[in-house]
Design goal:
Elements (H helix, E strand, L loop, with lengths): L2 H21 L4 H10 L6 H17 L7 H9 L3 H5 L25 H9 L6 H4 L6 E5 L13 E3 L2 E7 L9 H4 L3 E3 L2 H7 L9 E4 L6 H9 L5 E6 L2 H5 L1 H8 L4 E5 L5 H4 L7 E7 L20 H19 L2 E11 L8 H10 L3 E4 L7 E3 L2 E4 L1 H4 L4 E8 L2
Parallel strand pairs: 5-6, 5-8, 6-7, 8-9
Antiparallel strand pairs: 1-3, 1-4, 2-3, 9-13, 10-13, 11-12, 12-13
Length: 391
């Protein structure tokens, strides 16, 4: 592909991504993978260059643009070399019209920025939300120590974590193939520590998804005890069993939940869990570094639906905790209505519960919990609280 053709390919992809964000379609990564699966002629350098153009344009735009071309014009406005590739030659994009408008740059839609500021974020915190994310892995001590990884650096405060060079092909590493490492952001590893998991405990990972935190819990438990991973999403939960097998996590049981009937399906765990970990469905405002187009998908109505779901899973989780046990509430959101506000409402509704103090290797006290942010902690954004039931 010529440089101009790469720009046009990025425009075509951005057009699909904008439409998917508007219509709740596939994620950007999925669309990019599909695009190149249909264009085998594009080499690895072409794919990388187009992908970089696409994500550079997405990160630059807070509001969802009108079109893929408007998005790329915004990038061209900051880079004369890209602007020069709008030459109309071959498969390249048509020249830039005299009155043609580029999309306006920004960090996020204005209504979300207002809510983030109301949640105590401003200054350097906001632009850091859309920086490129690092590649972090967790060392899995259920397997033998991993073979050395070139360029890997330790992460302060996390002896079981490594930060790998950007662009590392993780799946080709012997340590990954052996199950000795798992891809997991440092922030995700840190908030999982709030469970205070030790061997022999009974723990429920209530919104387990594909099981990143489940596997971390199994390692902390040394494969001793009972660990139940549940979710309502069959496709995501089905990915956990093969991951657990590769990681050597033998204590994991998976259970698919039927929405509206969760308590019935979990009745055998009622008031018996030492800890219930809830990585609740949320807006994902703390993970924009990895999914920057997610800013274009959010609406006030969606956040309202998410907060109702969060209240629902908190009620389900509370019923599983034994007297003296704990509920750990986690969201990868930096909005107080999903984090500190939810915990405050829970404590008001459950007078027999209290917020436990947390000593984590990163983060700052926020409300009744701890908040991690990309700017302050070099992790994804999280809120976590540990809620203790009275004996």
């Amino acid at each position: 592909m010529t440089p101009s053709a790469r720009v046009q390919a990025a425009i075509d992809l951005l057009e699909s991504i904008v439409a998917a964000a508007r219509d709740s379609g596939a994620a950007a990564d999925t669309l990019i993978a599909r695009y190149f699966a249909e264009r085998r002629y594009a080499g690895s350098k072409d794919r990388r260059a187009v992908r970089d153009l696409v994500y550079a344009a997405i990160r630059q735009l807070g509001e969802r643009p009108e079109s893929g071309r408007a998005a790329m014009l915004a990038l061209a406005a900051t880079d004369p070399e890209i602007a020069a590739l709008f030459d109309g030659v071959g498969h390249g994009p048509a020249p830039i019209g005299e009155n043609e408008k580029a999309a306006a740059p920004g960090t996020a839609p204005d209504w979300i920025l207002t809510r983030l500021r109301d949640s105590g974020l401003d200054g350097e915190e906001l632009p850091a939300l859309i920086d490129r994310a690092p590649l972090d892995v967790r060392i899995n001590w259920l397997r033998d120590a991993p073979t050395p990884i070139e360029g890997a650096e330790p992460i302060p405060g996390l002896p079981d974590a490594l930060r790998l060079p950007s662009g590392t092909n993780i799946e080709t590493l012997p340590a990954y193939q052996d199950g000795a490492i798992e891809v997991q952001d440092a922030g995700s590893q840190i908030v999982t520590l709030a469970a205070k998991a030790i061997p022999g405990m009974r723990i429920v990972d209530l919104c387990a998804g594909a099981g990143g935190k489940t596997l971390a819990l199994a390692a902390l438990m040394g494969n001793e005890g009972a660990l139940l991973a549940t979710d309502t999403d069959r496709a995501r939960l089905s990915r956990l069993a093969p991951r657990a097998a590769r990681a050597g996590a033998t204590i994991v049981e998976t259970r698919l939940l039927n929405p509206g009937h969760e308590s019935e399906i979990l009745s055998d765990w009622s008031e018996t869990a030492d800890c219930v970990l809830i990585d609740a469905p949320c807006s994902g405002t703390g993970t924009w570094r990895r999914n920057p187009e997610a800013r274009w998908r959010l609406t006030p109505d969606r956040i309202e639906r998410l907060t109702r779901t969060q209240r629902h899973v908190l009620d389900i989780g509370a019923a599983l905790v034994k007297p003296g046990g704990a509920l750990v509430y986690i969201v990868c959101s930096l909005l107080d209505e999903e984090g500190a506000g939810q915990v405050s409402a829970f404590l008001a509704d459950y007078p027999g519960w209290t917020a436990d103090s947390l000593a984590l290797p990163a983060g700052r006290v926020h409300g009744a919990g701890v908040r991690l942010t990309p700017a302050h902690d070099a992790t994804d954004g999280f809120f976590v609280a540990r809620l203790q039931r009275a004996c």
